[in-house]
Every structure is written in C-alpha cells, then in structure tokens.
Amino acid sequence: MLTALVALDYLLNVVVIAVPAWRSGASLRSATRDMLGFTLIAQVADRVGMVACTVVGYCVHFIPGVVMHDLGLFVVSVLAGNFLTSGALIWFLARYYCARRWALPKRRSTIIATVASILTNPAWAIGAGFLFPSLGASR
Fold first, then answer.
1. pLDDT digits (tens, 9 = 90+) for 56-94
2. Looking at residue 67, what DSSP letter applies?
3. How far is Cα of residue 84 from the mean position of the Cα atoms in its chain?
4. Which of 28, 34, 98, 122 is least surrounded by Cβ atoms within 10 Å, i.e. has the fewest?
C-alpha cells in the first residue's frame, strides 16, 4: 500500500512539476528522473508538516466529551498551520529543483513551486480525514 501511495505521489509530482518544467525548457528525462529524489525528500517534508497535526488530533480525540466535529475553529487552524508548513517546505524544494537543477527562469520556477505547494500538499488528505472520519474507518 505504501509503495502504491509513493508511486501515486511520484506521478502527481511529475504532472504538477516535471511536465511544466519540461515545457519551460528543462530536459524531460532529467526532470522525471529528478522527481524520484524529489518525491522521497518531499515525503520527509510532508511528514514534518503532518507531525504536529497528527499529534494534536490524536491527543484531542482522547479528551472526554470532545467530538472532532465540535472543535470547529481549532481543527481549521491546525489544518491551516499544517497546510502552510508543508506547503512552504514543498515550495522551497520545488523552487530549488526548478531554479537550480533545471535552470528555469526565476518567475517560471516560482509559479511551478507555488502550484506544487498547493496541489501536492498532504494537508488535503489530512483535512479529509478530519472532516470525514468515516472515510478511514473500516466497517
């Protein structure tokens, strides 16, 4: 299962980062090959952003009488913090690959990195878990 998720993440990174970089002048072979390393490093960056959210969510779950749906603003602020933290780390990583490794123009590198920080952000999955807890539960 983990291998399938990493492969899916790699494909998403290729579509969101490597293909636009290729269209901007980077070598497709180099970009798709570099996405292997990017995906592994981004997995670590994603986890840095997820750790705080997961720990807080786990601890809050065990407070008697607290229901996740009743937390409202707290959940939203934790998700926003996770989204910003992971997004910033992904942005810097994608910007580095585009600007330094593939020598794309600064403006184009910034655009690709910004789109990557939003579309490949793991906070979407965490948010879905908070908003729809039954998605992860087996019956």
1. 667 766 777 666 566 666 667 777 777 888 888 899 999
2. -
3. 10
4. 28
**Local structure of 135: helix, strand or coil:** helix
d(C-alpha 113, C-alpha 49), whole Å: 17
- Token match 């992971």: residue? 86
Helices assigned H by DSSP within 1-104: 2-13, 19-23, 28-61, 73-96
Tokens 């998605």 identify what position? 135
CA 24, CA 28: separation in Å to the nearest integer? 10
Contact residues for 38 (Cβ-Cβ < 8 A; gap 6+): 13, 17, 93, 94, 97
Q: How far apart are CA 32 and CA 49, in angstroms?
A: 25
Number of domains forming the structure of the chain: 1
The whole-angstrom separation of Cα 107 and Cα 112 is 9
Cα(62)–Cα(58) distance, integer angstroms: 7
Q: How far apart are CA 50 and CA 57, in angstroms?
A: 10
Look up residue 126 and give its amino acid: I
Residue with tokens 């779950």: 61
Tell me: pLDDT of 103 over 70.
yes
